[in-house]
Structure formats: C-alpha cells, structure tokens
Amino acid sequence: MTERSAPCFSEVSALLRAFPRWTLFIHQKADGDAVGSASALFEAGVLLGRRVRWMGPDASLPLPYRFLPHTDEYLFREELAFDDTGELYVFLDSSNEERGVRGVGGRAPGTVVLNLDHHEDNSRYGTLNCVDPSCSSTTELLYRLFRAEGWTVTATIAESLYTGLVTDTGAFMFSNTTPRAHRMAADLLELGVDPSRIEAHIYHNRSLKAMALWAQALSRIEVWGKDGEFSLSWLSHGDFAGTGSQAADTEGLVNQLLTIRGIRFAMLLSELEPGRVKISFRSEEGMVPAAAVARSLGGGGHPRAAGATLEGTVKDVVRKVRSALEERHAEWAAAH
Ligand code: 5GP
Ligand code: MN
Asked: Which terminal residue of the chain, N or C, has fewer Cβ atoms less than 10 Å from its own Cβ?
C-alpha cells in the first residue's frame, strides 16, 4: 500500500537540518506520547550532530516513562524566554503554546517555532505547523517523517515511538487505532521493540500510593442520566496529599469509569492545587464528544479524550461540569 506523506515533511526536515541547536518542548502532565516523541526526536537530533535540549512545564517526568532514552536530560522550565539566538524551538504533542509552556511571555521577533502535533484543535501557533490529526499519536507523525525523509530509526528510537503509539491508542483499542498504526507497530517490532518490556514499564509500574488514590476515586463514583450513561468521580487536594500521590498518578483512571456497564461518558475531577481542578473527559460512540464538553468549559482535546482546568472548590466544579455535560448532551442529541 502506498502512503502519501504529509505535505509538511520536506519543510520540517529542512528546518530541523538548518538549525544546529534544538530545544524540544512537551505539554503539561506529560503522557507517553509527549515523552516518546521528545525522546525519539532527541535521539534523532543527536544522530544528526545537533545540540538538543528538552523542557516542559512539569517538574519531572512520570516514572513509568523514565526508561526511555534521554529522559534524564529533561529540564523543568516554568517560564521560557524565547530568544532569537539561532535555536529552533520544537513543540511536540502540544495543541497550543500555553499547554507546552505556561507563561510564555511573547517571542522575540525572528524566533522560529516548529509545531509537530496530531491534535485536531491545534491552534497552529508555530512558524511552521505540521499537524496531522490522521495520526494516532505524535510519534506516528514522527515515524512517518523519519521514513519519508530517510532518517535512521534505531532500536531505541523505535522504543520511544512505540511508547507514544501504544499509550495514545490505549494499547491499540481506542478509535484512533488504524491499519496504519498497526503497520507502524509491526515495523517497530521488526526494528527490535519488545512489547512486553514496554508493557511492564508503562502498565505494571503503579505505586501503592497511586493505588490508594485510585481507591478513593473508585469509592465515590457517581452515575446518572436517563439511562445511567454518565459518570464522574473526583479527588480533592487532600486525597493527593494524604496518599502522597501526584497528578501523573491519575493516568488511566478516568478510563476505568468507562468500563462500567452502560457508561458512555466519564469525567474525573482532580484538585491538583487548592481551588484549581483539572477535569478529564472521555466519551464513547453515540454520545456527545468529550471535546465539545471540554471546549464549553475553556478546555479542548481529541473528540473522545479531552480536558479542561477550572477554578473553584471541587463541589462547585462538580456542579458546573455536570450541568455542562447535560446541556451539551441535550444539544448534541437534538442535532443527531
Ligand atoms: P487527559 O484527560 O489525559 O489529561 O487529557 C486528554 C486529552 O485532553 C489530552 O491529550 C489533551 O489533548 C486534552 N487536554 C487535557 N487537559 C487539557 C486542558 O487543560 N486544555 C486543553 N485545551 N486540552 C486539554
Ligand atoms: Mn498525543
């Protein structure tokens, strides 16, 4: 089967080759795709003789991804001063600049930003935007770029790419799992990826503290709606502090709510700082898209997996998100 390359690949490759120094950025609450993308592009840059840095707004990377190459070179940057010093700024898996770097204080004229992403709602903030929502993951976009441009994919790059692919497709079970995603997985296995090694790192690496946090959320699931199709749970700042858990420990938790029979829409509220509540939205086929509800609350994301952050007490935010879901769902149902 012939595959058309995204039209941006030759420009992206030319831009990356033109700069001797790259700084890679990933989004807040780094996931497997963000870490996998940066790890893969970091190594590709090193192989090309580039000086590469890697930064993001999280203080550290989640432990399950730290087996990937170059993760020990990740730097925490609350605020980034863009300057025009002949450096290329590459944003990975970040649908907007703010998600990549909090408090970006404006760029110096002449700063060059390369935006590599697969989010449909990407705001195209880059000097060059290579955004392809047909890709399951940003690592699928990178893999296609590397192949189209004839860049070497080493066994370690393959592991990083596979990590983004497997996590963003929910281990090849979400609706973004395409024949092309499976073909990419097959290629990566041929390059030496051991899926069980990656599975062990990513999915068999939960701390007991995180499990205690999950127990809190699983013990207070609310279910409602005409056919009992909506559900939510929440975690207060005290739950995080009391169990000694962090934001990254909720990874995968909201998806558990969807495994309850009949549930088609799930939300998890996490009070990450007192008065600041992060919400994760997940939806199934035949239900208002998660992204539509997230957008109406100032957030965004993929059609079926989206997020937003609201100010207020957990109780207030629960009330707000319940009514936003009910309203958006009623609108959606009337139009379908
Ligand atoms: P999660 O619920 O796993 O944190 O996020 C799921 C998806 O929602 C992410 O891949 C991202 O696209 C999007 N997302 C999560 N949080 C936010 C947010 O605060 N703002 C926006 N615009 N998108 C978000
Ligand atoms: Mn992604």
From this structure: N
